[in-house]
Every structure is written in structure tokens, then in C-alpha cells.
Amino acid sequence: MPRTVKISDEMIHLAENERLISGRSLANQIEHWARIGRTIEQSPAFNYERIKAALTAQIAYDDLTFEEQEVYLEELGEALWAEPDAKTKALYAQLTGPGVNKNDKM
Model confidence over 65-76: pLDDT tens digits? Predict the structure, then answer.
């Protein structure tokens, strides 16, 4: 059941900026941070920077701890289901639009 919670203007501002990057709604961005925070609190050895590194292929998924892998998979799932941003849509339209030779596509 949805509830109203007071959150500082600073935190709302941070979440609004991050949601623009992630493509989440404001509520989903705050819930996402809450899940990450909960996971971190439950595991003192947890390092979110390692998850970001794995998501950008800087380190291997197998090098993450079990807890880190859980968050990695959640992040990956959200990214796969997210609505593409305008820049991605424009690039796709350019690559698949009229006048593009289908044999030249990647």
C-alpha cells in the first residue's frame, strides 16, 4: 500500500537527477536506492562500485560476491526493460530508417 514519506529537498533533487540518467520514475529511483542501501547494510563486505564496474564490463560477473551478483542481476534486468532514452531512439531510427541498406547493418 503506498504511503507518504517526507524526504529532504536535497534527496529529492539527487533522485530526480539520477532518474533522468537511469530512466526510472522518481518513486522507482528512491525504491531502487532503498533496496541497494538495505543490501549494503546487510553485507559489510558489499561494494556497489564493483557492481557498476561489472555492468560496464570492467570486471567479470563471476568476480562479484553473491550479494553483489544479486544486485547486478536486478540492475541488468531493470536496464533491459527500461524505455530507451531519446538519444538511443534517435540512433536506432538513424540505423534502421529509410535509405539504410539492410545488408550494411551490424
Answer: 888 898 899 888
